[in-house]
Write a structure and sequence with these properties.
This protein is an alpha+beta fold. Helix content is 31%, strand content 13%. The chain contains 11 helices and 9 strands. The strands form 3 sheets. The protein has a 5-stranded antiparallel β-sheet with strand order 1-2-3-5-4. Strands 6-9 form a two-stranded antiparallel sheet. The protein has a two-stranded antiparallel ribbon with strand order 7-8. The two termini are 36 Å apart. The model has no long low-confidence stretch (mean pLDDT 89).
C-alpha cells in the first residue's frame, strides 16, 4: 500500500514513540531564539475566537507562507488568572511533533500580546464537517476516530493529558487527514500522579472530573467516547437542562444507545462510558491496546494509518492556499499596541523558534 499523502515513513511504532518522547523532552526546554514582529505579517481574516484569544489567518510577507496565529492579550491573561494555563500550552505546543497533532511553528510577543503561529488547516473542523454532511457512516467516522486514538496514545506516552477532546478541536488539513488542536487545558502529568482541576467542555466532561477526586489520562478516553457517539449519531449522549442534571447523567452513565449503531460500535461505546476508571477501556493495564484491538477497529492497520496510506473519505473543497470558506465568519478588530512594557517579565520565556 503506497502513501496516500505525506512522506511519513514509520516502521516500528514503539521505537517511534520512544524517539518522539526523547524529542519532546528536549524541545519543551529549549530557549527562545527567534524574535518576530506582527508587522511582518499581513492579516487576512479572523477565523476563530475563544476564551484564550482569537485566531487570525495571516500571511508572512517575505515568503507568502500562511499561518493560523493565535493572539492572546497579556492584560486579559493576567486579569483572568490564566497565565499558568498559557505557559503550559506554550510548553506543550513547542515540543509536540506528530502527524495527527497540531504543532507550533514559532511564537513571539510584543508589549500587549502574545502570538503563536500554527499551520493553517484549511479543511475546517469535525463540527463543520458533520454540519455540512450530516451524520457520518461508521466507516467514515472510524477513519477520524482511529487518528484520534493514535494522537491520544502519543500524547499520553509523553505524559500530556489533553482535557478538551471534542469535535470542534479536531481540524482537517487540505488532504482530509486530521490534527488534534487546542491545548489550552492540556497539562503535563506524570503517569503516577493525578490532577484535580475542573476544566473542559461540560458535555464532554468525565465523571472523575465532575466528582473532583483526582484523575489522569482516563478523562481523554471518556471524551473520545462522547466524540465517537456524536459523529455517528448526530447528537450528544449526555444532556440536561442545567449543568446539575447534565452532570448527574454523566456520573450515572445515563444515555440511550442508538439502535442503528453496529454491535461493534455499541460494544466500544459501552466500554468507554464506564464510571469506574479502573474498568474503562484504555485505562486498564493493557492501556490503549484494548482500544486498538477493539472489533470496531479490526479493519485498520495502525502503522499504515500513521503513514497516511488510507484514502480519506472526504477531501475538503478549497480553492487556493488562502481559502477560508470552511471557517465561520468572525468580525475582526484592530489590535491595540502600547509603547509600555506591560507585565513583560511574566511573558519573557514565551518566545520560541
Amino acid at each position: 500500500m503506497e502513501n496516500y499523502v505525506g512522506d511519513t515513513c514509520i516502521e516500528n511504532w514503539n521505537e517511534y514513540l520512544d524517539e518522539r518522547l526523547e524529542n519532546f523532552q528536549v524541545q519543551k526546554n529549549r530557549q527562545p531564539c527567534l524574535l518576530l514582529c506582527i508587522h511582518a505579517f499581513s492579516m487576512v481574516r479572523t477565523i476563530g475566537k475563544g476564551g484564550g484569544g482569537k485566531i487570525v489567518l495571516a500571511t508572512r510577507k517575505y515568503d507568502y507562507k500562511h499561518f493560523a496565529i493565535k493572539i492572546t492579550s497579556k492584560k486579559s491573561a493576567v486579569k483572568t488568572d490564566c497565565l499558568i494555563r498559557f505557559k503550559n500550552e506554550m510548553e506543550i505546543l513547542k515540543a509536540i511533533d506528530f502527524p495527527f497533532v497540531i504543532n507550533l511553528e514559532f511564537s513571539f510577543q510584543d508589549n500587549n500580546y502574545w502570538y503563536y503561529a500554527m499551520p493553517f488547516m484549511q479543511g475546517g473542523d469535525l463540527f463543520t464537517l458533520i454540519t455540512c454532511l450530516g451524520v457520518l457512516s461508521e466507516d467514515d467516522a472510524k477513519f477520524y476516530a482511529a487518528q484520534i486514538v493514535l494522537a491520544l496514545e502519543y500524547l499520553h506516552y509523553l505524559g500530556v493529558v489533553h482535557r478538551d477532546v471534542k469535535i470542534e478541536n479536531v481540524l482537517l488539513d487540505s488532504n482530509g487527514y486530521i490534527k488534534l488542536t487546542d491545548f489550552g487545558f492540556a497539562k503535563i502529568l506524570p503517569k503516577t500522579r493525578r490532577t484535580y482541576s475542573f476544566c473542559g467542555t461540560p458535555v464532554y466532561l468525565s465523571p472523575e472530573i465532575i466528582i473532583q477526586k483526582g484523575y489522569g489520562f482516563s478523562t481523554d478516553w471518556w471524551s473520545f467516547g462522547v466524540l465517537i457517539y456524536e459523529i455517528c449519531s448526530g447528537h450528544l449522549p449526555f444532556t440536561g437542562r442545567k449543568h446539575i442534571s447534565l452532570f448527574e447523567n454523566i456520573i450515572d452513565c445515563t444515555y440511550r444507545m442508538p439502535v442503528h449503531f453496529s454491535y461493534q460500535l455499541q460494544s466500544l461505546i459501552t466500554k468507554l462510558f464506564v464510571s469506574d476508571v479502573s474498568k474503562r477501556i484504555g485505562c486498564t493495564y493493557r492501556g490503549v491496546s484494548d482500544i486498538k484491538d477493539a472489533e470496531w477497529f479490526s479493519s485498520y492497520n495502525w502503522l499504515d494509518l500513521c503513514n497516511k496510506k488510507y484514502k480519506p473519505p472526504y477531501i475538503p473543497n478549497v480553492n487556493g492556499p488562502l481559502d477560508h470558506s470552511l471557517f465561520d465568519d468572525f468580525s475582526s478588530h484592530k489590535l491595540k499596541f502600547s509603547k509600555q512594557h506591560l507585565i513583560q517579565e511574566s511573558f519573557r520565556s514565551f518566545n520560541s523558534e
